[in-house]
Specification:
By secondary structure, the protein is mainly alpha-helical. The protein contains 6 helices and no strands.
């Protein structure tokens, strides 16, 4: 369908055709679908040794990111509360409410305890993905 000039300008000018049995084809199709790539890109990346991450290892990433985003929003809210207390204390030349400060410190501590396991999960996931590269 293409002209000779178009074929001459291609960076990939070798066409590869081969046969697979049903099981091989199903597995290839599944891997390609899970990767989000087209077959050509998937096979070229696999041939060149690119990391084709195991979709099973990647499935937890959206959940972890969502949880981390939620925790970061909680930290942002705590920061806003601290700023409001500082503004009130400075405006009215009064010390901040000690009980409220203790409550905010406790919020920071509790939220921080939730961040640690998420970071550990991400660290393990990254380690698993790095192992797949080798």
């Amino acid at each position: 369908m293409g002209t000779k000039a178009a074929k001459k300008n291609r960076t990939r000018n070798h066409q590869v055709n081969f046969y697979m049995n049903d099981e091989e084809y199903r597995k290839l199709t599944k891997l390609v679908t899970e990767s989000g790539l087209n077959k050509q890109t998937y096979l070229i990346n696999a041939t060149l040794g690119a990391t084709l991450a195991n979709p099973e290892a990647l499935k937890d990433i959206p959940k972890l990111l969502s949880e981390l985003t939620e925790l970061l929003n909680q930290f942002k809210g705590i920061g806003i509360n601290c700023n409001q207390m500082a503004k009130i204390a400075n405006t009215y030349n009064q010390p901040a409410n000690e009980n409220k400060l203790k409550e905010l410190a406790n919020d920071v501590h509790e939220t921080g305890k939730e961040v640690l396991p998420l970071c550990q999960s991400l660290k393990l996931l990254i380690r698993e993905l790095n192992l797949q590269q080798h």
